[in-house]
Predict the structure of Cardiolipin synthase N-terminal domain-containing protein.
Amino acid sequence: MADLIVILFALWLVLWFYIFLPARMASNRGRSALIWVLVSLVFSPLLAIFLLLVLGRATSAWKSQAKA
């Protein structure tokens, strides 16, 4: 039973680190959560998190150009 709890916790931690954290960070910054989850899965979650921190919020000019 203890092994199952450890495995479930490890799975939750991996999912949080690879999927939920980059998705939430991207959404909070006005960026596509799906794209950043893919970056996290293909390259590295640390790279995705670092790039999101460096890039910051998406500008409104970029959003208005994307809609046009």
User: Anything to note?
Assistant: The helical segments are 2-28, 33-42, 45-55, 60-67. The first helix runs from residue 2 to 28. The chain has a mean pLDDT of 88. The two ends are 55 Å apart (CA to CA).
